[in-house]
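Priority: medium. Attachment 1 of 2:
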């Protein structure tokens, strides 16, 4: 096969891969599996296309799954199963309470059957078949790892382990605090192509795009045709568990041609329902105007303008949001610096441990290695350097005297018998030189004793230290012994030459 043919085949394969990876995902809002304010609940208290029970309370602004009372449980479920494979759910909720810690938490469900309204697992049934995304706010295992967000899969045969907070059963999760936030917290659950992704909004700002990744899990096989649900429960401690909205969107790829098509009959039915809803809304507006004549005379354009206080409050919130964005960037940079510092400290620790003869201890993941305390401080280092300079200078002086003594000894030995007459003069000179060496050694010892002492520090492990004065005294003693030995040897040789 020619090179042009190979290049053509490679280009074709590359085009196929690029076209397969460039498929976009289309979203379609599913109102039958969603609820949001205003008019979340009807006048009779019902939520369209949803059922709720237990201690749950539905109003026009939210659904309170469990109030802040002890041993309360409640849940809300869709009436019909979903008819699409891939989906995205956006849940906005608030968990508030007066206590420092809360209980027990809420959960989002996707199961083949609707659960109980007062079940054992956060207000729903145990041994479910499907997915349970649990927002656990109470620390049952006392490991200080709550509030926690975790996904738990079940095939309908396993019971949830409350004692360990489900840590041995979870698919994945993240440690996030969702209690008592200034703004509602949000969770976006996406299930597409057997990949489960959960994003979390911490509720510190009102920026709707301020999401962060909680976890992503692949090869997640969920059953088809399940029900969506939300549940919550309280125990000895209690929080208000309010769900503000749940928005569901079906996900479709470009190969699905925009998802399933709607027939003309269904379109007609939907248009009629919309018209009926509009008429019902106009009737409710007329009734409201009759019941509240003062509000009816109010200018409808008043809501279009903001007061000075509202403008100031909005500017403060915007400034706080900007500050939080800057702080987030600073946190990322600080994390990078800490990572580099940890690597440097680990290298220094290994170097110091090897120099001290100690075995290197492995650093646990997430633990910052600590550098052992050095034996001396910076001031001690300066003092030690000064003493070392004094020792170097003294050794240089001693070296000069020793060279002079050695030169004179060599001259005496080379002179032979003729130098015997001059030997007393040389001996006197050498004796004077030794006296000068002794005086220099004594002066060095006095200077070392008068120098600033090093601050007492723990002794080096398994090392016997010798003082500088003792070292100089030993060196001087050895030099004196060598000198007297040389003189003794010289006399013996001179006496032996006299006999001959």
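Attachment 2 of 2:
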């Amino acid at each position: 096969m020619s090179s042009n043919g190979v290049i053509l085949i490679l280009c074709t394969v590359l085009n196929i891969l690029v076209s397969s990876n460039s498929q976009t995902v289309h979203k379609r809002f599913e109102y039958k599996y969603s609820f949001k304010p205003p008019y979340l609940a009807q006048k009779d208290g019902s939520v369209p296309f949803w059922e709720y029970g237990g201690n749950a309370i539905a109003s026009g602004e939210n659904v309170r799954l469990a109030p802040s009372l002890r041993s309360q449980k409640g849940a809300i479920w869709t009436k019909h199963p979903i008819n699409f494979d891939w989906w995205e759910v956006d849940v906005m909720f608030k968990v508030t309470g007066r206590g420092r810690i809360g209980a027990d938490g809420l959960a989002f469900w996707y199961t083949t059957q609707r659960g109980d309204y007062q079940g054992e697992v956060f207000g729903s049934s145990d041994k479910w078949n499907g997915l349970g995304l649990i927002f656990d706010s109470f620390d049952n295992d006392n490991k200080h790892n709550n509030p926690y967000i975790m996904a738990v899969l079940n095939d309908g045969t396993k019971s949830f382990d409350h004692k360990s907070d489900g840590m041995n059963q979870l698919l994945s999760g993240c440690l996030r605090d969702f209690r008592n936030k200034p703004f509602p917290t949000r969770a976006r659950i996406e299930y597409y192509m057997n990949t489960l992704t959960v994003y979390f909004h911490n509720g510190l700002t009102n920026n709707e795009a301020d999401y962060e990744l909680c976890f992503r899990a692949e090869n997640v096989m969920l059953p088809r045709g399940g029900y969506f649900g939300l549940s919550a429960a309280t125990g000895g401690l209690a929080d208000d568990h309010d769900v503000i909205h749940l928005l569901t969107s079906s996900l479709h790829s470009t190969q699905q041609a925009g998802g399933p098509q709607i027939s003309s009959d269904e379109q007609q039915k939907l248009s009629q329902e919309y018209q009926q809803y509009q008429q019902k809304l106009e009737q409710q507006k007329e009734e409201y105007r009759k019941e509240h004549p003062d509000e009816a005379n109010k200018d409808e354009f008043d809501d279009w303008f903001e007061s000075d206080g509202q403008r100031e409050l909005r500017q403060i919130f915007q400034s706080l949001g900007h500050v939080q964005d800057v702080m987030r960037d600073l946190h990322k940079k600080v994390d990078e610096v800490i990572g580099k510092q940890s690597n440097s400290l680990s290298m220094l620790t290994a170097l110091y441990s090897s120099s001290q003869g100690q075995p290197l201890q492995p650093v646990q993941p997430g633990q910052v290695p600590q550098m052992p305390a050095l034996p001396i401080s910076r001031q001690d280092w300066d003092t030690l350097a000064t003493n070392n300079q004094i020792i170097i200078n003294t050794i240089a002086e001693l070296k000069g005297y020793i060279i002079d003594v050695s030169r004179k000894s060599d001259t005496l030995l080379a002179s032979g018998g003729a130098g015997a007459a001059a030997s007393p003069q040389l001996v006197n000179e050498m004796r004077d030189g030794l006296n000068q060496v002794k005086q220099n050694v004594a002066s060095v010892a006095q200077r070392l004793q008068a120098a600033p002492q090093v601050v007492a520090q723990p002794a080096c492990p398994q090392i016997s230290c010798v003082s500088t004065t003792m070292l100089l005294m030993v060196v001087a003693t050895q030099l004196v012994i060598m000198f007297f030995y040389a003189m003794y040897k010289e006399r013996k040789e001179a006496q032996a030459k006299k006999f001959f």
